[in-house]
Amino acid sequence: MNTRLIATETLTAALARMLAAQIAPPAAILLDGPVGAGKTHFARAFIRARQGDAAEDVPSPTFTLVQTYDDPMGTQIWHADLYRLTDPSELTELGLDEAMEDAICLIEWPDRLDHVPPGAITIAIGADPDPDLRRIDMAFPGADRLAARATFVVAAGHGDARVLPLAGDASARRYFRLPGVGVLMDDPSGSVGPFLTMTDWLRGHGFGAPRVLAQDADQGFLLLEDLGDDLVARVLADRPDLGQQIHDRITDLLVDLHRQRVPTFVAPLDGAAMGDLAALFVDYYPGADLPDLATLIADLHDRLCGDLPPAISLRDFHAENLVWRGDAPLGLLDYQDAVAAHPAYDLVSALQDARRDVDPTTEQAQIARYLAATGLAEAPFRAAYALIGAQRALRILGVFARLAIRDGKPRYLAFMPRVWAHLQRDLAHPALAPLRAMLANVPAPDAALRERIARCRP
């Protein structure tokens, strides 16, 4: 499907910067269009965005045919203008054919090529009746979203900002940093509305959610305050001496959060819902032929978790979604799926992290800290904690298997042994004896089983 953009010079450059933030070598970008269309303007914005503070002057390669550049990530960028090319065999002399095997190549006048490189993307820039505008046509996967992101950034008044990719998560969301401006969230899933609602609630109650600087909820775009790079996971790895202080702050945040009245706009995460979520384990994990798993978890939840009213739960509450800001409140990320759940839910999320090890001594100390601050009875809370931990572990194992099998993302399989260890520790609680018996014959995610999952395809 063709994506057409009617673009100013600013939007054209913003589009180039947005493409520069998401593309990886090897890549061939074919810039088609007549003389004066703006091909070099696009290429210049792309190259300078990749180079950042080390940006060089980017002249037109009309007479040299090829100019090469390096970016700070170690990528070589070739900018070729083939207008004066008389014979495709000259490409071999220029080295362009070889460069396309490992570099990013921006090629003007691509019709001079003897063949279109495999996987090349074409951006056709042409005239518009308005001489100040250009028509940009693109027909490659993701072109529509790329154009929409650039349009949003320009409309927000930041069309000149550099764009840098940020690590995403297991969802369809993507994040980009606009240095000195904020963080762009691109969420095509439709969860921007809940994110905005939850942001307002959190900020209104004094928690560290980011300010919203600009929004287009219908398109799924937000420009957010940049809370910085000091993710708690990173700080704990670099500064283990801060471990107790940080974990105390996390627990105290939850104590404060759970003192708030649960807002009416969040859905309940009750026993039935917990059971349904655990069914992912049955659907995707090899050897998990357990048709009654969801029912058992729902029954255990009703039995072990019904003594306390639900509390607000941010749900995906772990060290990679928290930002350390010194004396300022912990920064919060990725909370659009907030629910009303048993108070142990987020404590489990923080202390049984799929991505990083938490010392069991730290886990026990933080459970004790939470109980001391809330005055809750220890025995029933620990039983509920164990059940929620087991349910979360089963769901996460199912999610990681699904990511590998359905979505082609096998990197999450490496976390499975840690999650399995959490599951075994939780199952040791006497109240979970029926669940422990049901899972007794399910194989552990050893290297062979993870390899089996990685080879699966729908």
How would you explain this protein's 3D organization?
With 458 residues, the protein is an alpha+beta fold. It folds into 3 domains: 3-143, P-loop containing nucleotide triphosphate hydrolases (Rossmann fold); 174-224; 232-455, Aminoglycoside phosphotransferase (APH), C-terminal lobe (Aminoglycoside 3'-phosphotransferase, Chain: A, domain 2). It is 41% helix and 16% strand. It contains 16 helices and 17 strands. Strands 1-7-6-2-5-4-3 form a 7-stranded mixed beta sheet. A 5-stranded antiparallel beta sheet has the order 8-9-10-12-11, with helices on both faces. Helix 1 packs across helix 5. The mean pLDDT is 94.
Strand arrangement in the largest pleated sheet:
1-7-6-2-5-4-3
Query: Into how many domains do the coordinates divide?
Result: 3
Count of alpha and pi helical runs: 16
In CATH terms, what is the fold-level topology of the largest domain? Aminoglycoside 3'-phosphotransferase, Chain: A, domain 2
CATH C-level class of the largest domain is Alpha Beta
Distance between the termini: 26 Å
How would you sum up the major sheet?
Answer: 7 strands, mixed
**Oligomer designation:** single chain
Counted beta strands: 17
Report the CATH superfamily of the largest domain.
Answer: Aminoglycoside phosphotransferase (APH), C-terminal lobe
Radius of gyration: 26 Å
